[in-house]
From TrEMBL:
Residues 3-342 form the FAD dependent oxidoreductase domain. The keyword Oxidoreductase applies. Pathway: Cofactor biosynthesis; thiamine diphosphate biosynthesis. One of its GO terms (molecular function) is flavin adenine dinucleotide binding. Keywords: Oxidoreductase, Thiamine biosynthesis. GO terms for cellular component: cytoplasm. This is Glycine oxidase. InterPro entries: FAD-dep_OxRdtase (IPR006076), FAD/NAD-bd_sf (IPR036188), Gly_oxidase_ThiO (IPR012727). It comes from Vreelandella subglaciescola. GO terms for biological process: thiamine biosynthetic process; thiamine diphosphate biosynthetic process.
Amino acid sequence: MSDCLIIGGGVIGMMTALQLADAGQRVTLVERGRCGHEASWAGGGIVSPLYPWRYPVPISQLSRWSEGAYPTLALRLHEETGIDPEYRQKGLIYLNVDDEARALGWARSMGKPLERIDAQAVAAREPHAAASQNALWMPTLGSIRNPRLGQALRARLGAMPGVTLAENTAVSGFIRTGNAVTGVATSAGNYTAGRVVVCGGAWAAALLATLGEALAVRPVKGQMIAYQTPPGLVERVILKDGRYVIPRADGLLLVGSTLEEAGFDKATDAQARASLEASAESIVPALADYPVVHHWAGLRPGSPDGTPFIGALPGWQNLYVNAGHYRNGLVLAPASTHLLVDELLGRTPLIDPLPYRLEGRMVEAG
């Protein structure tokens, strides 16, 4: 019997397991596929909400803490596993921002560096970016190569003696006595634990529905493409009209993303690809000369306003949830998992946990 059983092997589940194991807890992580292969793999890896000033304050609070945690986490994982998550802190250029005053006001209130720059300054930073007379520059923004982050987290957990990874293991229901949850039934048999944490991403609501609970989390499909370019063609994240390009050190350039209400369908289509290519070339015109080498889709755990559900499930003993991060799972993962682990271990919380609790928020309209 473990101290804690975690359902879901994305970055939320794996970071929760890592922090609990660091604290001496015995942890079992159950994943229906392979750890890190759903939304955590499919995202872009920008370590900030796309337009952070347009989000509720609770998201900014989690994001600010997580941004500061990623450099140390990436360094730790690289040292412990030999897998480099490729954390890059080269800043972000916003093109065509139509609510500039709001953005600058948010930056002042949060103590974030954000400044207006002209076309010459854009060209100096990114010579291949589209010309723009209306740009903002955030020098501290970073990005992480999320598939490699997932690989590094999985490798580290696999080497920790107090952690059991149960991959390719589907959860069919909860084991309970009255309103106390004591484990889960799975395709590989039953697992029991002192506490159970649901980190199932877009599938979290379906898991909780087996208890008759309705959680306001739904799948939202996002399609992305990637170009192979010479290293250094683009050095910084560039965002324009809701679409972005994200460079990797080896010249791979990610472009995203669509927002589609399509249930659990992860199929890609030619129309989305054409739209993403058009966005990419409007941001970096030179991309018209390079090939698209990948096209994929993932499922985000959509929630009513993007604020995740973090904490105990009302009416049940020993059952907790960390889900509903929508477009910001990677962005918020270090802080949201730390906040939940604070609750599990009885520590002083990282930040005020009240905005993330499930009480009164379970079935808000999306």
